[in-house]
Amino acid sequence: MPRFLLALLLILTLFVSHSQNLSAAEQRPNILWIIAEDMGPELGCYGTPEVKTPTLDRLAKNGMLYQNAFTVTPVCSTSRSSFMTGMYAMAIDAHNHRSHRDGTNPLPQGVRVITDWLRPAGYTTANIKKLTDDRKLAKFYKGTGKTDWNFTYPKGKQPFDLKDWDELKQNQPFYAQINFSETHRGGAWNTSHEHLDYVVDPAKVQIPPYYPDHPVTRGVWAQYLNTVMAVDKKVAFILDLLKRDKLDKNTIIIFLGDHGRAMPRGKQWPYDSGLHIPLIVYWPEGNADLPVPALFQRGEKSDQLISSIDLSATTLALAGVEIPDKMQGQVFLGFQAEPPRTYLFGGRDRGDETVFHIRTVRDKQYRYLRNKYPERPFLQINRYKETQYPIIGLLRNLHAKGELSGPPLKLMADTRPREELYDIQADPWEINNLADSPQYQQVKQRLSAALDTWMDEIDDKGRIPEVPSIPKFWDERAIRNYTKGLQERPKDWFKSAPGLGPYKLKQESDK
């Protein structure tokens, strides 16, 4: 055969091979995590009264809603350290909030963030901050780019490749995440109502029975639901971008909260209120090249127990990436799906300057908690919360006047029980502690034994207290940052705190 024909044949072979490889790449799904900071399952599709979340409700209707999804820990840095590695924070020494940022705590051998497992498999990774070139729209429609991990990422390297939405289309397949901060206390929370056509009526909200039924409580809760509705509006913007860029047919969407709601007895507390998150998985419709995976049932609600670390393992499986040997997360969708969990485990340790050590286990009916420091009060000082949580100010004010009773009064106790046990089905707010009830001793012993086994299996690093200099550092830092403001504010500051949004009350007292 003449040389030019051999050369032509070689070129054609390479072209066909490249086309086949390109086609295979195009058929691999994009995966988008939409992460709402500090959001519990307070959505219309979960049955929350008064909140209006049409976009997420529709996503759940066309996807799959998980009713029993929980994070490992109830605060951002420890929770994100878990679900970004597929590992329990307690297993990788990342369990103390805001720790190990000084370069001394790399991830253990064989443990990586999810992006570092996806990139070698051909995925572009992104943590989106920029959504639009329109400067006016960009003031609201943007991501935070949050990472906030309690370990040291390798020096000189980046955990994500991109941060601009407009770069995604040309870099498929991609794994991207976008973080929204409206449901996190701060400026975005305080102004969320300004972006809505409808705001929540405080008189119509359902508040937990461990809060006093007071206009401040109802106002804070209403503003929280406003922040949830603002997130829903942002998700609608994202779905429009996917459709505009013709990415809607090949992008899996996973919507989640990074932990539970930013409320007293919520964030930083490993009850359902601090660990329970929304979880919606949407599989693209109308794409024959992406048949739905095993166990995905469009439009259905699942009561399967899901840990946030399972999202890492499942994402890798859906991307066709082998699950790392050390990863503690379990796959819950597709042909690699593992048997459903019987138990979910979690806990909390130091949060800022506040030192607790709590471990918990939950099955579908009961939650058991073990408190290492029961002599420390529930409202042990946390100066950040004292400035940001009007309900804490209200609790302290009413308690000083002797006006608290029932579950709210229990929050003001000087000590806490060593063990707690709640029947979630009968007592969803977790206010009736059954740990000492004779008829529940078998349940308590079963859950306590499961908790012990788990702590041993993962080699729970939280069993070793931090050296005293670390909480001392955070205590001194909090004193510097917050003491002056706490001393100078009015006594009834909680009536007009920014966190109340449009529901501020008239102040009546002096400083």
Verbal overview:
The chain has 511 residues and is an alpha/beta fold. It has a single domain, classed as Alkaline Phosphatase, subunit A. 31% of the residues lie in helices and 14% in strands. The strands form two sheets. An eight-stranded mixed sheet has the order 4-3-5-1-6-7-2-8, with helices on both faces. The protein has a four-stranded antiparallel sheet with strand order 9-10-11-12, covered by helices on one side. A hairpin with a 3-residue loop joins strand 10 and strand 11. InterPro entries: Alkaline_phosphatase_core_sf, Sulfatase, Sulfatase_N. Its EC number is 3.1.6.1.
Outline of this structure?
The protein has 511 residues and is of the alpha/beta class. 31% of the residues lie in helices and 14% in strands.
User: Can you tell me the number of structural domains?
Assistant: 1
Sheet with the most strands, sense and barrel status: 8 strands, mixed
Low-confidence stretches: 1-26
Strand portion, in percent?
5-15%
Signal peptide: 1-24
Region (Disordered): 491-511
EC number: 3.1.6.1
Domain Sulfatase N-terminal: 29-321
List the helices and strands and how they pair.
Elements: H1 3-27, E1 30-36, H2 54-62, E2 64-70, H3 76-83, H4 114-118, E3 124-130, H5 135-138, E4 162-164, E5 174-180, H6 187-191, H7 215-244, E6 251-257, H8 272-275, E7 276-282, E8 301-307, H9 309-318, E9 344-348, E10 358-362, E11 366-371, H10 383-388, H11 390-400, H12 406-410, E12 419-423, H13 441-458, H14 469-488
Parallel strand pairs: 1-5, 1-6, 2-8, 3-4, 3-5
Antiparallel strand pairs: 2-7, 6-7, 9-10, 10-11, 11-12
